[in-house]
Design goal:
The protein is α/β, with parallel strands linked by helices and 260 residues long. The protein has a domain at 51-229: 3-Layer(aba) Sandwich (Rossmann fold), CATH 3.40.50.11240. 31% of the residues lie in helices and 16% in strands. The chain contains seven helices and six strands. It has a six-stranded mixed beta sheet, sandwiched between helices. The termini are far apart.
Amino acid sequence: MREDPFELLRRMTRARVALGRAGDGLPTAAKLEFQMAHALARDAVWGKVNFDGIAEALAPRDVIEVTSAAPDRASYLRRPDLGRRLAAGEASKLPSGPFDVVFVIADGLSADAVESHAAGLVIATVARLAGLSIGPIVLASQARVALGDDVGATMRARLVAVLIGERPGLSAADSLGVYLTLHPAPGLRDSARNCISNIHGHGLSADRAADKLAWLVREALRLGVTGIGLKEAAPDAALETTASPTPIIHHKPTGARDHE
């Protein structure tokens, strides 16, 4: 058998490289792997999160389930604006803090990501936030990132952290993202948020993500800013270092966009 010079490269990345060919097409194995990845991505988008299981994993922490204004999955995918606000009457379920941090676990575009990583990440992050008041954890269905602004404003949270299933790709269908926003309020731009992405088994680990998120939370509260004004200068061991952070010029973003 002839040695494949690209085998080492393929072992170093999940990208589809040097797949070879069979005539004018892909080899059978590569084609089947692509079709499987595509099917997993579709299932992730259309899947329904088992929020009961997540609530059980988070016990004994208080959880509250809410829904967005999108009445079903098809509407959610066609009308992103509906996923950015709470359905009528849902705000009445939420307690009025104040809280330092409120976590929102949103289904987003990957049910697999939320079920696999969200509860563990919340638990790991809360353990790193001793001394801060943490609100009940909100479980939001048919939700987009900006739904956290509605939730955070209602609960009078200084910070809201939205954990959400990211749009699946053909190399990772279970990637989780986190969006952190200071002084959440409807209409904020995405530039007012910090994002940690690619949290999954072949990407950023839950422990590393918890380190980064806890560091961002404390820096946001200390400096009074998130988004483009808060650059992540956390070292690799974010909470385990006494080194002075890299000097940064912070700029507080302003303005709003109606469709957020």
